[in-house]
Amino acid sequence: MSCTKGSCCPPKKADETTYDMVREYYGKVLTTSGDLKTSACTACTIPPKYVTDAIALVPSEVNEKFYGCGAPLPAGIDGLTVLDLGSGSGRDCYIAAKLVGPKGRVIGVDMTDEQLDVARAHVNAFAERLGWEPQLEFRKGYIERIQEAGIEDGSIDIAISNCVVNLSPDKHAVLQGVYHALRSGGEFYFSDVYADRRLSKEARSHAVLVGECIGGALYTEDFRRICEEIGFTKPRIVSQTVVDVEDPELVQVVEGATFYSITYRLFKAGDQEDREENYGQMATYRGTFADEKDAYQLDKDIKLPTGQSVPVSGNVADILQTSWLHPHFSVEGNRDRHFGLFQPGTSTATCKPTADRTPAKSGCCGGGRTC
To answer: Whole-angstrom Cα distance, residue 24 to residue 36?
Structure first.
């Protein structure tokens, strides 16, 4: 049998073993999030207000069967097309449907029938709460082969996923598929579990650890390497928390590894370098996101206040100019002149030699320079 685009090809035997463990755990073993043995598959940080407001509209059964580890839902996605990989009970899809509004579209892909049944069962009730009909649908499929679920290349603005990629036996294929599905300037904004080292074969094949999102956790550096190989921008951390593994048997199997729930941003952007370089560029946030009026938090380290010109690296300038974020920012400068590695909080663009070479009292300059 040959596999062609649009057909649902059977998975490899080794992959099917992993799929069976995941289906069994999420379709039959777990009934609610209270059945989990670790904190990996539960959200452990408070989501932003625009997310909590949307959660209040989500039907109770959808919320009860939610097993995510973060809140991978960026602000300002009104009118965009969103894809959720491993959508499960559909909670994040429901939230995204509220955020994209009547003109946006949300597609959830999952392989577990029990979870898909829950997700599909409440769409009409959700529409009544919204007061309008969302463009929300759920498709059965494997996240490694989203094209087989009808996801066309270059058709998605934002891809999201919540503690699911770790469950895949082929994470490279997942990330590669997302990259192809995204439009130029699109983004993969997702939460998952990662490890501070490569795990043993025993840990990777332990049914409970796999089901609890621990056994399939990628070593953070291996994840970075995959992203770079595929062509994504450098992974940008939005949030990071330690995952608690307290069960004595599981502690012994993981052999001292530390696990983290991390929300990452991966952009399909243009001219990226392997380090943050300084070209003296400045960026200004226009304050145009309804849910982030005062400032925009690009990642855990970069916050851009509304109306203020802020020094940014060449990579950040490129993201703000070429990604889906570009209407909300203005960027001054280009890459004609290089000033070395970018140091947060400094900029050469606004520093000019003074005639009397009087040192500046504060700011980015010194040694006979003023800002």
So the answer is: 14
In a domain, residue 1? The reply is no
Residue 349 exposure: Cα atoms within 13 Å on the Cβ side: 22
DSSP notation for 31-59:
SSGGG-SSSTTS--SPPPHHHHHHHTTS-
Q: What is the pLDDT of residues 348-358, one digit of tens each?
A: 444 333 333 33
CA distances from 367 to 281, 339, 345, 361 (A): 21, 16, 17, 10
Instruction: Give the number of residues written for the chain.
Output: 371
User: Of 242, 240, 236, nearest to 259 (Cα)?
Assistant: 242
Show the tokens assigned to 161.
């996923």
Expressed in angstroms, the distance from the first to the final Cα of the chain is 68
Same domain, 111 and 243: yes
Q: Among the listed ranges 15-19, 185-189, 253-257, 316-320, which one has the minimum average pLDDT value? A: 15-19
CA distances from 166 to 180, 268, 280 (A): 20, 21, 38
Cα separation, 176 vs 169, whole angstroms: 14
Q: Give me the domain span that covers residue 147.
A: 13-267
Structure tokens at 98: 């509220």
| CA geometry: angle 79, 84, 90, nearest 5 deg | 100
H-run or E-run covering 189: strand 182-195
Query: Measured between alpha carbons, how far is 158 from 82 in angstroms, rounded to an integer?
Result: 5
Residue 272 falls inside a structural domain: no
What is the SS3 assignment for 293? coil
In 3D, which of 118, 33, 21 has the Cα closest to residue 68? 33
Q: Kindly state whether residues 230 and 356 are assigned to the same domain.
A: no
- pLDDT grade for 371, boundaries at 50, 70 and 90: very low
pTM of this structure: 0.84
Q: Between these two residues, 70 and 91, which has the higher pLDDT value? A: 91
Q: For residue range 122-147, what is the model confidence (pLDDT) as tens digits?
A: 999 999 999 999 999 999 999 999 99
